[in-house]
Structure of Acetyl-coenzyme A synthetase:
Amino acid sequence: MSDASELLSATGTTPEQVYTPQEQPGWPKGNVGTLDEYRKRYKQSIEDGDVFWDKAAKSTLKWTIPFTTIRSGGFEDGDVSWFHDGYLNACENAVDRWALKNPKKTAIIWESDEPGQHLHISFSELFKQVCLVANVLLSFGVRKGDVVAVYMPMVPEALYAMLACARIGAVHSVVFAGFSADALRDRINDAQCKVVITADQGVRGGKRSQLKKITDEAVAECPCVERVLVFQRTGDVLATPFHAGRDRWWHEEIAKQRPYCPPTLVNSEDPLFILYTSGSTGKPKGVLHTTAGYLLGAALTVRDVFDVHSDDVFGCMADVGWITGHTYICYGPLLNGATTVVFESMPTYPNPGRYWLTVDTHKITQFYTAPTAIRALRRLGDAHVAPYKLDSLRVIGSVGEPINPEAWIWYHEQIGKSKIPIVDTYWQTETGSIIVSPLPRVTPTKPGSATLPFWGIEPAILDPTTGQELKGNDVTGVLCLKRPWPSMARTVFGDHSRYLDVYMKPYKGYYFTGDGVTRDKDGYYWVRGRVDDVINVSGHRLSTAEIESALILHPRVAEAAVIGVNDDVTGQAIFCYVVLKETPAEAVSTLSTSVARMPHPDGPDGLKRMTQELVQQVRQHIGPFATPKRIVISPDLPKTRSGKIMRRILRKVANGEIKSTQEEEISKLGDLSTLADPGIVAVLIAKVHS
Ligand code: 6R9
């Protein structure tokens, strides 16, 4: 955070173009009618929060035992609770209500990796499948409060697994299927999962991933795991290891069960799930969400930010392994009784028209993706969009990172045909659901701005150095929230003091998001990106410390510093500076065998091999999505005399802001007088830019 002021001062100016919403013939009446209505309801949600949330919770969710208390606790001790004497079941809310009312209606459309292969799953079928899996989990001894790891590809069974946990009051911990065995192992052990649910293989972009093999590798170091439940996605039994004592096949287990399982009575504040996310330190945090407040945030944002009506088909292209998948593939759409799309493939498979083919095929009404996908598709050209009608769309959304105006305008013109509103939705794993966003057909939009806060969200912009709130418009600082909201994370699993340290303590009395933000002259919010050591690669949150820890595990690495560099497609990319241990050639053979095989790192071949090994090291420790873009092996890092790495130097050199050692370039680095060895700057510039 020490670099926050510097990061914020580097942000650009705000373009002024405003897009005013237009009414379209034939569209249903919006859930929020006008900007005045938004302002009125927003005002009530802040000034008369108890009345607002009481009504919202009662009209949106089905309560088994209604609540009488609306909110208690606060940021200071991190003891926030909402509706805490109420009881309900998340699965009953997402599934049973609609299975009873409209059993034949499609709950899930599965678009498989191969175009043309899709499935429609009705609410009654979803209900049955979820009950079967819930009974399987009960038969494995899973009980209320137990944590179940879910390591699944994008198949409906991933949702069945999550909802089955919710049904019996178990806590799901979904681990993105792109994570490596090491990362999966750490997450399983942290939450002491007894059961892991996975698949034989994943299929994406025509390629298979070995999920069960990876799970086996992880579970070999997880003494807590008693059972592994394996769904057959490909049925390639020869390629799938199976340990008869511990493993069970999904299809065999559900065949033994009754397709009804009563929902467990769950308190509003009982945990619903844990989701690990990267923070400023190397160890991922198990962000814990509870039941009622989370469900309310998911349901209301789908209804109002996406203007969902009951016959809508909600197409969120995220992966269930991330918060966006939890809230906008699984819970949010289903809580509204809408149809949700589970998309197994990728935007460019088998060609860059895949998203648009999917929209037309399933008549998707709300389409939600990340700026990185929009930028990549824009680059590939408009010809891939041209063959598609896209006339079912009513709202298109963006999430995960700031969207640059060029990408916004392309999305608006090419996908939105210059008439469909874009919702640039700002939120985080910790916020549970969207907190700043336009409302479609209501809020005038400006490309690149997430615009205005959602119900009950009171943003505050603070000066990062003094912690003073910057009131009024035309201010830039760090984004904090002033009051608790229902879907906020309640703790970090097993480490409440870390929760307090990261979110509540940096600015007393506020929740700290970790993002920099500008409030412009119209009161619109422009989220600038992280001011901490978190980088955002293709919308995936990664901690620089976590990547550094992975690099340091390599026997030859003495030190590593990782920073984010700007990238036209992925937003940011991983740039690593690595210092090697002294390894004289003659000493190499005495090190571990993998090291002994390597040539000495000083030669060009040695350097190339070393770099490849380091890339591999990060992929193996975290996952392929964390592949570094560049690794620079340097004799040292720029450090202060007290030994602190001066990251701003590394950042400026890597981003090409400083390319030569001419005095006027070097002066752009600011005060270097605290550097222990000022000579290192020229060495770094030469390494990076020669
Ligand atoms: C939902 C999600 C959270 C971080 C967040 C911020 C960035 C997300 C954004 C955005 C600008 C948006 N972020 N949406 N920045 N505009 N519309 O992405 O959760 O993975 O926890 O990441 O993503 O930096 O702090 P998560």
In short: Confidence is low (pLDDT under 50) at residues 584-597. Residues 277, 322-324, 399-402, 424-429, 450, 513-515, 527, 529-530, 536, 539, 541 surround 6R9 (CB under 6 Å). The domain at 531-583+599-689 is CATH 3.30.300.30 (GMP Synthetase; Chain A, domain 3).
